[in-house]
Amino acid sequence: MTYQHILVPVDESPISYTAVEQALSLAKLLNCRVTVMCVVAVDPFVGVDFYKVAPAITDYFMQAEENAQKRLADIKQSFIRDEIEVDTKVIRGVSAAEGIIQIADEVSADLIIMGSHGRTGFKKMMLGSVAQAVLTQSPIPVLVVKV
């Protein structure tokens, strides 16, 4: 199978950058497009009225989005240097897994390359696994890069 469009979700973790390197290598090899994305997730308390108006919370989300945009701009340069067609996206207001699936559909990606921290047992149960959720929900192949 050949791929035409790779989606790479990233966050601030080093494993995200390992996934970016894998996507960069594969995109060069297959001469395909890449979309790199970040999710600025919503906190579970978003429905609480005081939460929406709290200046500290608003500042937090504004800073999170600014950091995501900077991260994407830096990553984009790696693909541009190698003459790979690249777009970036930030999605807000959804869970990480939901955002990844949504953007994959929106850009017609045919492969998702993402990192996983490889948590198991209690840590996985308490913290969840975005990679696991994407693996189970995605209608397209997912390549999971682990540390």
TrEMBL record:
<protein>
    <recommendedName>
        <fullName>Universal stress protein</fullName>
    </recommendedName>
</protein>
<dbReference type="Pfam" id="PF00582">
    <property type="entry name" value="Usp"/>
</dbReference>
<comment type="similarity">
    <text>Belongs to the universal stress protein A family.</text>
</comment>
<keyword id="KW-0963">Cytoplasm</keyword>
<dbReference type="InterPro" id="IPR006015">
    <property type="entry name" value="Universal_stress_UspA"/>
</dbReference>
<feature type="domain" description="UspA">
    <location>
        <begin position="3"/>
        <end position="146"/>
    </location>
</feature>
<dbReference type="GO" id="GO:0005737">
    <property type="term" value="C:cytoplasm"/>
</dbReference>
<dbReference type="InterPro" id="IPR006016">
    <property type="entry name" value="UspA"/>
</dbReference>
<dbReference type="InterPro" id="IPR014729">
    <property type="entry name" value="Rossmann-like_a/b/a_fold"/>
</dbReference>
